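ENTRY TYPE: paired fold submission
RECORD: A
CONTENT: sequence, then structure tokens
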Amino acid sequence: MQLNLRKASKVLRKHIAERVRDYPLYVNEGPGSDAAPIKQITVGYQIDQAGWLAIVFDTRPHAENDGKWNDFIEPNAIDLPEWHKAFTDLFHNGKPINLTLFDGTTRRLGEDTTVEQLTELIGTTIRDVLIQARDDGHFTGLPITTDCSYVIEEHDGYYGWSNRIEAGPQSQEAYFAELEGDLPSSTKDGHVEHWVNVLERIASGKENESEWSFLASDYAIRRLKELGDRAIVPVLKFVRKWSGKPEFDGDRPKRKFNELPMQTPTINALMLVRESSCHTLEVESLLRDILRRSIKANDGRKLWGIMPVWTARCLSTLFEHYPNPIQHESTNALVNHVEYTNQARTKR
């Protein structure tokens, strides 16, 4: 298949011009007040489940790269089906891609290409177009702040970029204060959403770098625990988003490989669920879905991630009709995962 990112860049430049032209004519479909100036411009995109791109204008006074743009995909997205077709051809059908980059150079992507590499190539093309549009003054027609930041983010966390360079806080207290953000003015449900967004940033590898950032997941989970059972379903939906992905960047017999950023916050989230008293049908359904996806993600691996076992622990703790999980000592595999599948079928 031919994938021409130079041609796609022209579509994006035209779309930027249309959004700038039309901005005063409609209610802004983005975070913040419609009348406030634009504090952040985010371009989100996806290629694996579908091909689309969305430009979201964020007018919150304290706008940050917290994933809030995801709530405004539908009214802002344009379809780019050739991106999804390229993904499908390469990763599902095993067909190579002849790629034309933004600068006109070409390359051939074959079976050794990863999803991260393809999404990064598309992401950097979007980034280059966005920077060029900014530097050429294309956004001067918008009511933007002098410190407006620009963000590129792939929907599932495979690629991210921002022009904002932030120095991490110099003390643990300052870092926790940064994590707290605008919480005092939020409702309890708003608090839940805030802390789940923090977990999302960590899982995506986008949490601000700081000597204290290793504490972020535990701190967010502790704050969610204080909010009680209202946090459990949103937390499980966060885990479900990541449950179909591997927890390591390699597998045996490779000697060295690392945990991916999503592992710590998702496993911490499952520990929180296990300690709760929330055993509703929705919670059970979410846990079963997470288990199914995580088992599929680990199928064929020499070393499993630990999400299947921790999900099974949640099911067996919160619901009486599930067996105790059996974890293989050397591979982490959930040995008796079929029992959980059969139990779900029996219930139906």
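RECORD: B
CONTENT: sequence, then structure tokens
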Amino acid sequence: MQEEKKQINYAEAARALQSLLLLGSYPVAVRFSPEEDLPEKARRPSRVLGYPVAICQGVAMARNLGWTMGFLKEDHACPPSYLILGLDEKAKGPDYGEMLTPLYGASRELCESTNEFLLTLPMGQYKSIALAPLEKCPFEPDLVLVYGNPAQVSRLVQGALYHRGGVITSNFTGRNSCASELAAPLLYDQPQVIVPGSGERVFAVTQDAEMCFSFPATWLADIVSGVEQTHRLGAMRYPTPFQGMRVSPQFPELYREMIKELGLQD
């Protein structure tokens, strides 16, 4: 059972994460709705672009361009993500083992054995998805996605565990990032660390050095507080305070002779 969301100012939380982690893109708020319910000014790909796109492209537009995005059935271009997110009322679930063979496995059986670990939302449960920069999201989010490099994601993990303890457990398949970013945190009610798959990097311009940290919005207050506390107490900060910048440099003998001649050291 998902816990109730704590009262939190989303704009302040987003600014705190940006300031403490020096993020390269906006944290993204995500809302799933059982109705065709989108924010009034949401950009729908089928209308603003004239064609549907993958949901990961919508996330990229929200986090890189600051757009509020809305997805109904006609806005989705990616069949696997459409099924993984349970947006089809009639399908039993994703069954595309043959399509993935031999691209991601030497046999259909091997591909299907991986598919068994892909978390999928119940079919027909949701009809619309809204995405927006957390700082200006016009809705109550279900999830928050934050992209960053490994050091920034590590800080988010530290923040998430500061008030709750335990560990962050995630699955990695190298594909179908939407299952880990959007389905898993909803189903587990737990944060997820994601290594973006090839599809997201090809279509959504996710950079090779980027990872994603996705978590239920109910965790947001604790995560922001945890990042702030660990920063203030000096457990770890970003940018990483490399000790190498503070050590005494060791120079060749010729340099040491010049140092003495110049009187730079006693």
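NOTES ON RECORD B: The chain has one domain: 10-240. The two ends are 68 Å apart (CA to CA).
STATUS: closed
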